[in-house]
Design goal:
heterodimer; A: mainly alpha; MetI-like fold; 13 helices; B: alpha/beta; D-Maltodextrin-Binding Protein, domain 2; 2 domains; six-stranded mixed sheet; four-stranded mixed sheet; 20 helices; 10 strands; globular
Chain lengths: 293, 440
């Protein structure tokens, strides 16, 4: 059976995709090309003096041990944000899928955090965990745990991971829940009749059938951890203590927007772009094979 | 329904009137981009409004453009796209970046001379003027909000520890026993500091008359190198590090966050900006006072004078030279003793001219608020030297971040003071080299 639609007019299909193409070109490709070009220059802030320096900005970056150290921090941060974010959301969605009474309220409450801006989410956790004013800090002190993320690198990293995960859970939750609800009930019922318990049913039926959703969320969450988290770092730790929370995208923001070194910042964003492209290719080539559509 | 119709008619009439008024005056517009929030924003609006009422040829419009780094970035972006605002407020660490951009900025001394506005460099507070003057002593940007570092003490905590708040510690040598007594009396935090790089290294160097960087702290040009890893600074950072270990100095963050630890009563002493006066007054539920920033009696020549922080107003080059007259007139108005005295009293920033300082004295401001003039006394303690005029460093935002990081490695015991300061100097010099390369 041939399902393909054939357009009569030769130009109509092009006209139909043109708006999408135009948006992609203007808002995605043009800035990317700009970043590539800017990364090869050295300019003063006012752009009154411009020198073309080939790859000098990249050489400077790779000679800076502190820049190289932030790769490690970024890797740990992104892995934690993605893994915890997916696991917690999956758990919550599995529970929500079984809830009968008050399901709407439960779901609505879980979706709310998504509407909170990243910087606000960070400030919220800073208020809870501030070494001077934090509510949770006081509780921790009472049980004898010294919480001070201003000087403890591990705690600082934990703080930004928690804030970043909390903000992304709603999004993951929505997709997982939708994925679960599209799984035919008959399959699960059949398994139940055969004597499979809830745990077994989840791992042998629901989880494999969710794999397209899980894969999609994996890609989205990695991109989120790499690109969308600088506001959290900026509001919570400014990259400190020392460099414990200085992730790559935060350095791009700090050097470019706060410190006006646009060319150094452009070089960093080109590197970041390359990493994320590579990661996405790997995900599509190797992990997607395990996905059952 | 009838009422609504009436209201619409009235609004239309009001709009028409407003339109007629602007058409009749055709006042030249002067946009002023700034970063003042809350109460300060209201005061800025009030200053502009009073100026607008005082004459009809020019109209100053203040626009809040975000925090200091954001408004500076916005102004530079506007300049790059060919449509800059007339006046932009830039924080002190942006000074070198603004100054290096020849052709983008109209120096204030030149503006005032060209427009034949009265302008007397000698009338300014020395330490305020020198921070924003070039090597020939010409003022480049107009000082606006300037503050310096002071010590605040919690009187109640002092009394509880058996200390006399009427004689606060004057030197770091006296700080140590005071902190020990405070700790022994059960104070959860004896001492903390806001803006660690600014207070404990930048102004600390000036206060002890030792260089922060070569070539007169960078005033001499682009080839400057950092040298804040000298013996005096190293001794101080080592002491602070030791005090962290002993639980006497508690680190509370890089910028203004530590202030909350003082106003909440947790920390008994804090060194931070004199501009925090109003905030402490509004929030502290205990007796407190302002004292002079401590110095080392063992260092010869100390105390010298402290350096300022805050921001100045920069004039960006305009296509239409007609507007310069209005900017110059506004600056004359802004630096008049009456406006400055009111600004000083309302905000806690120091007055930029000696005449305004005298006026505040005459009005009895300092008898009414004891300690309010300590900041001015520190700034004018001695005439500024090459080490205490100020700092003029490119990529200063990055350098401060580096200093913050390296200091944190001392407080957490990862590095010795010497090692951390050497590393900060080395990393900071890379930033200076990069800046010099971009501005050759």
């Amino acid at each position: 059976m041939e399902k393909r639609v054939v357009f009569d007019s030769p130009w109509l299909p092009y006209a139909l995709v043109a708006p999408q193409l135009a948006i992609t070109l203007v808002f995605f490709f043009w800035p990317a090309v700009q970043a590539l070009y800017q990364s090869l220059l050295i300019q003063d802030a006012f752009a009154s003096k411009t020198q073309f320096v080939w790859f000098d900005n990249f050489v400077t970056l790779f000679h800076d041990p502190h820049y190289l150290a932030s790769f490690r921090v970024t890797a740990i941060f992104s892995a934690l944000v993605t893994a915890i974010g997916l696991a917690v959301a999956l758990f919550l969605a599995a529970l929500a899928d079984r809830v009968i009474r008050g399901a709407k309220v439960y779901k609505t409450l879980l979706i709310w955090p998504y509407a909170v801006a990243a910087a606000v989410a960070a400030v919220l956790f800073v208020f809870l965990l501030n070494p001077t004013l934090g509510v949770i800090t006081h509780l921790l002190r009472r049980i004898g745990y010294d919480w001070n993320y201003l000087l403890n690198p591990g705690q600082a990293l934990a703080l930004i991971v928690i804030a970043a995960v909390w903000k992304q859970i709603s999004y993951n939750f929505l997709f997982f829940l939708a994925g679960m609800q599209s799984i035919p009930k008959s399959l699960i019922e059949a398994a139940a009749i055969d004597g499979a318990g809830p745990w077994r049913r989840f791992w042998t039926i629901v989880f494999p059938l969710l794999s397209p959703t899980t894969f999609f969320l994996l890609v989205v969450n990695v991109v989120y951890a790499f690109f969308d988290t600088f506001a959290i770092v900026d509001a919570a730790t400014s990259g400190g203590p020392v460099q414990a929370t200085s992730i790559l995208v935060f350095k791009v923001y700090q050097d470019g927007v706060q410190a006006l070194d646009l060319n150094g910042s452009a070089a960093q964003s080109v590197i970041l772009m390359a990493i994320v492209i590579a990661l996405t290719v790997i995900q599509f080539r190797y992990i997607e094979r395990k996905v059952q559509y | 329904m009838k009422h609504r119709g009436l209201r619409v008619a009235r609004m239309a009439a009001a709009l028409a009137l407003a339109g007629a008024a602007t058409a009749a005056n055709a006042a030249t517009e002067v946009a002023w981009w700034h970063s003042m929030t809350g109460k300060l924003n209201d005061i800025v609006n009030q200053i502009a409004e009073n100026f607008n009422k005082s004459q009809s040829d020019y109209h100053v419009t203040p626009v809040y453009k975000g925090q200091y780094d954001e408004s500076m970035t916005a102004a530079i972006a506007a300049y790059r796209s060919g449509n800059p605002p007339q006046i932009v407020q830039v924080f002190e660490v942006g000074t070198a970046t603004m100054m290096a951009a020849k052709g983008a900025v109209k120096p204030v001394y030149q503006l005032m001379a060209e427009q034949k506005e009265p302008f007397n460099p000698k009338g300014f507070l020395g330490a305020v003027y020198s921070y924003y003057a070039d090597t020939q002593g010409h003022l480049i940007s107009m000082p606006f909000n300037s503050s310096t570092q002071v010590l605040y003490i919690n009187d109640d905590a002092f009394k509880k520890a058996g200390l006399d708040p009427n004689t606060p510690p004057k030197t770091w040598e006296e700080m140590l026993p005071a902190m020990e007594k405070l700790k022994a009396s059960g104070a959860p935090c004896a001492f903390t500091t806001g803006w660690q790089s600014w207070v404990q290294l930048e102004s600390f160097s000036a206060w002890h008359n030792v260089p922060f960087a070569t070539m007169q702290n960078g005033f001499g040009g682009l080839g400057t190198k950092l040298e804040f890893n000298g013996p005096v600074q190293t001794m101080h950072i080592k002491n602070l590090g030791d005090w962290v270990k002993k639980g006497l100095f508690t680190y509370k963050g890089r910028k203004d966050e530590p202030l909350a630890a003082f106003t909440s009563g947790e920390c008994a002493m804090i060194t931070t900006s004199s501009g925090s006066y109003a905030n402490i007054k509004a929030n502290a539920k205990f007796n407190w006072r302002v004292a002079q920033l401590p110095y080392y009696a063992s260092v010869k020549g100390a105390p010298q004078n402290t350096i300022i922080g805050g921001a100045t107003l920069w004039v960006l080059n305009q296509k239409d030279p007609k507007v310069y007259k209005g900017i110059a007139k506004f600056f004359t108005y802004l630096s008049s003793p009456e406006v400055q005295e009111k600004w000083h009293a309302d905000t806690g920033y120091v007055p930029i001219t000696l005449a305004a300082y005298d006026l505040a004295k005459q009005k009895g401001l300092y008898t009414e608020r004891p300690g309010f003039d300590i900041a001015i006394k520190e700034l004018t303690n001695k005439p500024p030297t090459a080490n205490s005029k100020g700092l003029r460093l490119g990529n200063f935002v990055q350098i401060r971040n580096i200093i913050d990081e390296e200091l944190e490695s001392v407080w957490s015991g990862q590095k010795t003071a010497k090692q951390a300061l050497d590393d900060a100097v080395k990393r900071g010099n890379d930033q200076l080299e990069r800046f010099a390369k971009a501005n050759q």
